[in-house]
Amino acid sequence: MSFFFKDPMYDRQATAALAYTFYGGADLGECFTTVRRIQEGDAESWYREWTATADRVFDLAEKSAAAGHQVSAREAYLRACNYYHASYPFWFGTPVDPRLIEAFDREVDAFLKAAALFEPPIEPVEIPCEETTLPGYFYRADNSGQPRPTLIATDGYDGTVQMMHFGHAAAAVRRGYNCLIFDGPGQGRVLYKQGIHMRPDWENVVTPVLDYALSHGPEIDPARIALIGWSFGGYLAPRAASGEHRLAACIADPGQWDLLEAMKGFFSSLPKEALEDLPDIDPSLLEPIMEHIMSDASLRWSVVQRAFWVHGIDSLAEYLRVAKDYELSSVVDRIRCPTLVTQAENDPVARFAGRLYDALRSPKELLRFTEAEGAGDHCELMARSLFHEKSFDWLDETLGVGTS
Fold it and tell me: Catalytic site residue 45?
């Protein structure tokens, strides 16, 4: 069902902006009036109108802040942050478009101004990781200094750490959790401005993030640290849990499996012998598939503009070779912590959630979401509060939160 546009990609991006309304990231009227001004299929129009709305709301926040209206300013900064983020998905790809960088910088600026107005303030952090640092935000459940359970959240392909405020952190803090959100290689600033691409061994990314969390102060309960990943984070989080055994729980939203296995369905037109040889294949056999991808705007964005950029590659043959390294089948038996696997009814990314669930040897639960309850889309985005109710109830019970 289309909400705003006939074009599925335009509609998907518009509804993504609207989805954060529950946690203060959007206002219905602001979104509706923005999409009405956009000429469908015109990326310039999309960028211009979302930026105009973001600029207007950011100006409202500045005026409220100058007059000492802290709540009004905080709420408007959050909405402006989301709208700036919404403005630039069509500029994905290399070489990096300066409009993407400008919009991203405004997204960060708006969020930083909102973060300072929370109580307790949201703390911007730089997490040491090998030869670089990863941007993140640390949320304290309160100012008591008492040990609290902590949720670490990892992103997917095309989100940013700012959007994980609405996706994870706001819900966590409401329930008495500290929360540490971060962007890793191939995500947000680390990709856009540091030029660092994604890597399959996410355990070597999460370990320094967890080290940082443990060093943060007495408010961290080291026995109750959980990890959640959404979208492609549904691969990254369980991959991290396979090698980082200090985690007390893991949530894969949605559960995923080996990336190459997931990609094979798209290449079903190849000769049987070629499918059996993947990822090693004569590149000429991929030419008709690549032509199909380039002729479809949504596929071109998903594969060429987004995936090629995230992985630092420039061909379909390279994508197949890279995909082979993103596997859970060889490490799933090393996951020790209780794991929640989610599966939304109409989410194509979730089609292997059952494979992950069946392969797990640790305590586990499979949580299904349906279209009938409004949560059948990718990452339950249009019913995120329902996802949080069910997943945090599981996490509370798993970590013993609220029990003596």
Answer: no
